[in-house]
Structures are given as C-alpha cells and as structure tokens.
Amino acid sequence: SFEGRVEVYHDGKWGTICDDQWDDRDAEVVCRQLGLSGPATVTSEGDYAAGQGFILLDDVACTGTELSLLDCPHSAWGQHDCSHAEDVGVHCSPEGNTAVDGSLGPPVRLVDGESTREGRVEVFLNGQWGSVCDEGWTDRDAAVVCRQLGFR
C-alpha cells in the first residue's frame, strides 16, 4: 500500500504518468496526496509492471510543496513522448507517516485558500471533485483532513 506504479484519473479514464523530469519532489506530492507524510522516492524503471492504455501526464515538475499532482506544472493531458516502459513508480516510506491502517477514504484537497495549507475541503468521488458541506463540521473533522493531507 506504500508503493507502486502511479496512475491518475482524468476525464473518465485512468492512465499512467511518464517519468520525464520526475524526481523525489514529485514522488513526495503523490505520497502527500495519498495521505502519507514520510519521505518518498522514485523507483527504478521496470520495478512495477508497465501500465496499459492511456499515458495521461508527462513533464510533471512539482516543487515538492503541492498538495496534489494537479497543482504541479505538467504537459497537456494526454500529450507525451513516452512509452509504458517509462511509467512512474513511487515508494512512500511508511516511517513517520500519519496515515492510519492505510484506510484513508477518498482523496482530499484544499482549494481557493491563500496558501497550500488552507482552503475549501473537496473530496474525489465517482470521478469528480466536490465540496464538503460544513453542517456539523468541527475542529476534529478539520484535524482529520489535515492529517490525511500530510500535515501534523
């Protein structure tokens, strides 16, 4: 549950990411998006089975502080110069992570904040992002979201 080939969901389909320009900073963003806050590394080509179907992202260039791959510069969706032999693999270290039992629920992100550490909470369900209603929302709920995003 801490490593494997990275795939993204876009426009109703899953696809892989090309490893061009990919480094440990990009891997850290993937792990953070999955709710894992420990160190992250890129795995070697061929460590995991090659993907099939679409290659959706290429030339991803994260700084390492983003909460989501969607916040990182990248080529246009589906535009690439790769084969599946160049699919990205990531290893998220289980050490120092705040994730509990690996059951994090749907992906979560913060949008429209003044920094990457604040904003409206959105979850990814059924292929799309949607807002969370604040009815009954407490600081305890906010703390869970922050932990899932890799913040202590």
SSE blueprint and pairings:
Layout: E1 3-5, E2 7-10, E3 13-17, H1 24-33, E4 40-42, E5 54-57, E6 89-92, E7 108-111, E8 120-125, E9 128-131, H2 139-148
Parallel strand pairs: 3-5
Antiparallel strand pairs: 1-6, 2-3, 4-6, 7-8, 8-9
Structural domain count: 2
Unreliable stretches covering 5 or more consecutive residues: 97-103
CATH architecture of the largest domain: Roll
Proportion of residues in extended strands: 15-25%
The neighbouring-strand order within the major sheet is: 1-6-4
CATH topology term of the largest domain: Mac-2 Binding Protein
Please report the total strand number as a whole number.
9
Give the termini separation.
21 Å
Shape: globular
String of helices and strands: EEEHEEEEEEH
Q: What does the main sheet amount to?
A: 3 strands, antiparallel
Supply the CATH class of the largest domain: Alpha Beta
CATH superfamily annotation of the largest domain: SRCR-like domain
Count, helices: 2
The SS-based structural class is alpha+beta
Overall residue-averaged pLDDT value: 83
Q: Indicate the percent of residues in helices.
A: 10-25%
- Rg is 15 Å
Tags for this model:
13% helix, membrane, 2 domains, Mac-2 Binding Protein, 3-stranded antiparallel beta sheet, 152 residues, transmembrane, 3-stranded mixed beta sheet, 9 strands, alpha+beta, SRCR
